[in-house]
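Milestone M4 deliverable, item 7.
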Amino acid sequence: MQTCQKCYTDNMKKGRASNKLIIGFFAIIILGGIILFLPISTEEGHRLSLIDSMFISASALCVTGLTPVDISVTLSMFGRVVLAILIQVGGMGFATFAVFFLLLLRQNVSFSQRNLAQEALNQETGRGIVSLVKFIFIASGAIEIIGAAVLAAAFAATGMKTSTSIGMGVFHSISAFNNAGFDLFGNSFCDYSSNAALNITISSLIILGGIGFFVMDDILHGKRWRKLSFHTKIVLFVTLCLIIGGGLVIKATSPELTWMESFFLSISSRTAGFNSVDTGSLTVPATMAVIVLMFIGASPGSTGGGIKTSTFFTVLIAVRHVIAKRETSAFRRRISKDSILKAFSVMTLFLFASIIAVFLICAVETGLQFMDVLFEVVSAIGTVGLSRGITGKLGAFSKTILIMVMFIGRLGPLTIVSSLSSEKQNPFLHCVEERVIIG
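Output delivered:
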């Protein structure tokens, strides 16, 4: 009974932190949308509607990359800076920024602020949160600066002006590392599909941002495979398998693509949203492969979305246990029942949210193809940003649905659900365990 009471108390604390997280995200989305709606944020002769400005703000803060307009011609320099700031805040988390600014001001970080950062970073405990926040800012700054320098040099090598190449390098480094997928070309990297320097740099930034800060910190300290944590081993193993497997499947089902295009799409599909090929021209099997990759997404504590690599791995291990009667273990470690339950809960909630969103959009937008709507919704909930060209065709209702889906995908369905937990009743009291007939 005491254990149940402790679990209930912990859930209530998480619920309160989740409420603050949700309110904070909503507030920043609205503020960003209002700023982007101002004439100073758009080029002369272009204006954003209020729903479009809110959509772009939500897409940037949720590091998704979906946009109903071509931002390369619509947004002014000021608007692009605002967009980059929203991407940076969304990728690292506004709770992380709040803690970091307190540290800069040499203020004490309160227990509630630690809980908020813990919830935002998807950590099991608040221990070491301050150190993790410091590492996040140092690692992000270093990686993005190096990425910006390499990209600027690569853009300059294509004949782009020096000032322009620097601006492009900075923006796309931020967008790539934070797995946002926003670009300033209008057609993503389709014009640079054969440029090895740009493809490798963007892919590297996406992977680093997608494996998670905890994993990066663990690799720097562990260095050897046997010293790495169980979580890090899972993330690295699944990430490598998805990149290689996804690239091979996409190449096999769309043989007209080059190997570079196939692997770039495989890497970018897992929440980054850049593309060097027209996704609308992919074959149905290749499109389904991309949808699966978008649904799985990046890793916990990263700048990406999706159900996460560790969730996908845990579900597979649990299914193997049911089919083969083997222990739910990997890398000589047993996976806890609580982790398995949480993994299935996350996947189920993601599926339900996706199905409901697809149903509602298909019911309203009768002229769209089902595959295009499914692709768009999974891209939104996985905070990917890839599209088959229907974002700008959607009405206000459908855009609102996608905003909600992006919001769920970025914060995570469990965070949303825990925020709705009631503090008046303890569901763990007076519960008798019973077996349910399954299958």
